[in-house]
Write a structure and sequence with these properties.
The protein starts with a helix and ends with a helix. Helix 3 runs antiparallel to helix 6 and helix 4 packs antiparallel against helix 5. It is about 55% helix and about 10% strand. It contains ten helices and six strands.
């Protein structure tokens, strides 16, 4: 956050961003996908079985049977049967895989029973394996989508090409005006738990004001923020709103969509499209670092433009002195 704050401070000192740009902002949310494979029941159960067997071998726990060979074959056949629309056979292979995973879980629990050290080492992985074995596509509630990143959430976006994305939600704030140096990112924050956008507006604006030191006067959001809980509701304008809209506010509302290309640049050029950092802290760090890198890129272009203008002015003065 210090990097992001410093980038905004330098932008303000050099004239790339003015104080009025910090008072009028557009806020939107997007999904920061995690670096995981697409989760399927067969793949998760096979992966859980592999991890349990590998850990048992490393700790010297001798299993009655590992089922590695038959489990791999079953996981492959689930995909093949599903692709061929042979769903009864696919369910049979999935049930076979679930049964073998349960046998390995019970075998490990029997063999480590009473050993506090082994119970500690196997505890978290056994809990994840049990959750993977019991979860179902139609069951509601939190699910495990990755064994190495159990914090991943499934977020529905409503896109035809990608109905669901797996990661965490991120809030992005940019000026709704047109700063001289470009559309800087004023605030970026990872939001875990897949919260409703309206409930995130209050904490996000409070963090933004602490980061910039400027009180926010106008906040422009999309229709996903309807019913928000921000205390000063008369400072918030939602897309399509007709009440309390003046000519100046209408011009700003037309620029609310300026946050969308900023999100696109963060994902395409600054590694927000696939987060490789671990855990909740990795999600939060990646979002802020992507925003800081984007801001520093804009600053470099702005300072290069100022340097070119200075060199051109000096060259013009030199030519005039030579002529004189």
């Amino acid at each position: 956050m210090a990097l992001l704050q410093e980038s905004l401070a330098v932008a303000h000192k050099t004239g790339a961003v003015e104080s009025k740009d910090l008072e009028r902002v557009a806020v939107d949310t997007t999904v920061q996908p995690k670096a995981i494979a697409h989760p399927t029941d067969a793949r998760l159960m096979h992966r859980a079985l592999e991890k349990l067997v590998r850990l048992a071998r490393r700790e010297g726990v001798v299993l009655r049977q590992s089922y590695l060979r038959v489990a791999k074959r079953a996981a492959i056949m689930v995909g093949r049967y599903t692709h061929a629309h042979q769903f009864k056979r696919a369910r049979r292979a999935l049930k076979f895989l679930r049964t073998r995973l349960g046998r390995v879980i019970r075998d490990i629990r029997r063999r480590i029973d009473g050993d506090a050290t082994l119970e500690t080492r196997f505890g978290s992985l056994l809990d994840l394996a049990v959750r993977v074995r019991l979860q179902d596509q139609r069951r509601r509630g939190r699910k495990v989508y990755s064994l190495h990143a159990p914090e991943v959430e499934c977020i529905g976006k409503g896109k035809a090409r990608a109905p669901y994305e797996f990661g965490c939600k991120v809030s992005i704030a940019t000026p709704v005006t047109s700063p001289k140096g470009g559309q800087f990112v004023l605030h970026a924050k990872a939001l875990h738990g897949n919260p409703y956008d309206g409930r995130t507006l209050g904490p996000v604006v409070a963090d933004l004001e602490r980061l910039t030191g400027v009180e926010t006067r106008r906040i422009h959001v999309d229709k996903g923020y309807r019913g928000h809980s921000y205390p000063q509701k008369f400072r918030v304008w939602i897309s399509g709103q007709v009440h309390r809209v003046t000519a100046a506010i209408r011009r700003e509302m037309k620029r609310r969509a300026a946050v969308e290309p900023v999100i696109g640049h963060l994902k395409a050029e600054h590694r927000m499209d696939r987060n490789y950092l671990k855990g909740y802290e990795g999600d939060r760090s990646n979002a802020v670092l992507a925003a800081a890198g984007y801001n520093f890129g804009l600053l470099l272009r702005w300072l290069a433009a100022l340097l070119r203008a200075l060199i051109q002015a000096l060259a013009r003065d030199t030519r005039q002195l030579q002529i004189a």
